[in-house]
Amino acid sequence: MGDSSFVQACIPKFDGDFDHWSLLMENLLRSMEYWTIVCEGTKEPKAGIELVAAEKMALEESRLKDLKAKNYLFSIIDKTILKTITWKATSRSCGI
Predict the structure, then answer these.
(1) How many domains does the chain have?
(2) Is the pTM above the cut of 0.85?
(3) Residue 2 domain flag
(4) Taking a C-beta distance cutoff of 8 angstroms, is the pair 11, 75 a contact?
(5) For a pLDDT cut of 90, what percent of the chain falls above it?
(6) Residue 65 included in any domain
(7) Is residue 10 part of a domain?
(8) Cβ-Cβ contacts under 8 Å for 29 (sequence gap 6 or more)
(9) How far is it, in rounded angstroms, from Cα 15 to Cα 38?
(10) What gap in Å lies between CA 89 and CA 22, rounded to an integer?
């Protein structure tokens, strides 16, 4: 049986009013703890640097958060707009 107090976040669709939508999205992404990754991106290690296990886990967690943030962004943007930004590598580069 599910938790009756759980409320699924309402993901605001982009309707052309960028200022309003970006405020709603910022609030949503902050509440899901993805905002930092959108603002700062992932901190990729320099080539040749060997990471310890904790650093590898942190990097994988950061990459996963970025993918989740991109998923939210891609799911709410109209297909015609999405085609212009799908080549972006990270959620940060999507430009909220």
Answers:
(1) 1
(2) no
(3) no
(4) yes
(5) 16
(6) yes
(7) no
(8) 35, 38, 69, 72, 96
(9) 21
(10) 20
Within a domain: 6 = no
Residue 95 has pLDDT above 90, yes or no: no
Mean pLDDT, rounded, for 14-20? 84
Mark 27-37 as b/e (b = at least 16 C-beta within 10 Å). ebbeeeebbeb
pLDDT confidence band for 14 (50 / 70 / 90):
confident
Q: Could you write out the three-class secondary structure of 10-72?
A: CCCCCCCCHHHHHHHHHHHHHHCCCHHHHHHCCCCCCCCCCCCHHHHHHHHHHHHHHHHHHHH
Range of the domain at 59: 18-42+49-94
Which is nearest to 34 in space by CA: 14, 64, 9, 77?
Answer: 64
